[in-house]
Amino acid sequence: MKWLELLTVAGATLVAASTVVTLYALGVRLTAIAADASQPSPGLKRSLAYVCFGLCGAAVLFGLYLIIPYFSK
Question: Is 46 exposed, middle or buried (0-12, 13-18, 19+ CB in 10 A)?
Fold first, then answer.
């Protein structure tokens, strides 16, 4: 068995999963902060939250692109 390739895939999976979770959590946190009326510039925080959600969705779609053989022909 090729152990180096197995470790490479495991490492890439760990990095990708933690990136998606971190982006989603940051988006949720920024949305909660923007909902607070006493915070300055809630529009900027809400925009950054939407950017985080968009990057999270793009990472998920890219993962699906890599997994589904029909798209990667």
Answer: middle
Instruction: Spell out a b/e string for 49-63, using b for 16 or more CB atoms within 10 Å of the CB, else e.
Output: beebbebbeebeeee
Model confidence pLDDT, tens digit, residues 26-67: 999 999 998 886 878 888 999 999 999 999 999 999 999 989
Residue 5, C-beta contacts closer than 8 angstroms, at least 6 positions apart? none
| Domain coordinates in residue numbering, the chain | 2-67
Note the pTM of the prediction, 2 decimals.
0.82
* Tokens coding 54: 């968009």
